[in-house]
Amino acid sequence: MIIAGGTLITPFETLADHDLIIEGSTIAALGPAVSRVDGDAIDARGLFVAPGLIDVHVHGGAGHDTMDATPEALHGMARFFARHGVTAYYPTTMTAPPDAIYAAVENVRRSPQPDDGAQHLGVHVEGPYLSPKHPGAQPASALRDPDPAEYGAWLSSGIVRLITIAPERPGALELIEAGLDAGVEFALGHTDADYEQVIEAASRGVRQATHTFNAMVGLHHRQPGTVGGVLADDRIYAQVIADGVHVHPAAVKVLVRAKGPGRTLLITDAMRAAGLPDGQYELGGQPITVSGGVARTPSGALAGSTATLDAVLRNAMAFAGLTLSEALPMATSAPAEAMGLAGRKGVLAPGADADIILLDAECRVRLTIVAGRVVYGALDS
Fold this sequence. Notes:
This protein has 10 helices and 22 strands. It is α/β, with parallel strands linked by helices. It folds into 2 domains: 2-49 and 348-377, Urease, subunit C, domain 1 (Roll); 53-338, TIM Barrel, CATH 3.20.20. The strands form 5 sheets. Strands 1, 2, 3, 4, 5, 20, 21 and 22 form an 8-stranded mixed sheet that branches. The chain has a 6-stranded parallel sheet with strand order 11-12-13-14-15-16.
């Protein structure tokens, strides 16, 4: 497959009027465009060619949720995400009883990758080892301390890739040690950790912050809190929901200036209402009302988002005053690097996976390719 004559954003450099050649499921070569677009090639002239987007924190969309624990739910999510430029994602769980979380984990392990949507790269377990002081939309009654009998099954599954925890909870540091030995990444989130505890967690191996600013201790000039630790420690990648609801646009700009695009991860934290009209939904066994595209619990707490990652990318560009090439790493190379996939995912380079999107001048997704296969969109030849 040849993608011909587009502007390639690798995302580390911008290459105008270039071709990209795919062999099988990998990128074979990049090079200056030939003088004529062959009839069998994908004509990308006038379009941006970019790595596929990666969402490390997403619960669901199009009426489906990770906690549904069915192959049909994952398939529906995968198709929906691909329409919005996502080629890889980490289906994210909710705080729930042990059997419900394990069922969701096992479903991801057993479900085949779709041939018409985004690929899952493993499970992101968000909770249940979180702070009751910052539950957000996580069911507070089900929060608990880390239990080796429970998380040992997650680690043994081989499919859990990221765990969000409150590092101050008893047993959290032991979980981090065990998880790192099993190749799992950790994020601090829904936490009451102070600055010193954040730095200690990073020293123990925590490398991400879950939806920075939300469900954590804010920044104060005499008590830097969780946010201060995240901003100050260069070891930590900061996830952020740039939907214009969870975080003020100016705070997104501050975060990007503090962390840089290479340490900022754009996420959706989307729930099953993403892509659907306002109405009544469910999240973690709780009734959720979506009004004006904003999802809330009966108590008024924000309950994930209804955003898509392409929209979040456009928002981040506007909020932080960035060009596409400047903002793109936050949804491609940075999440890949944070998850130990640098060079394989999130980049246009020979040998990398052929996960590719084509964007128009308004940064709207025109075509999505996953593992060398077109899964969404069509262009005139």
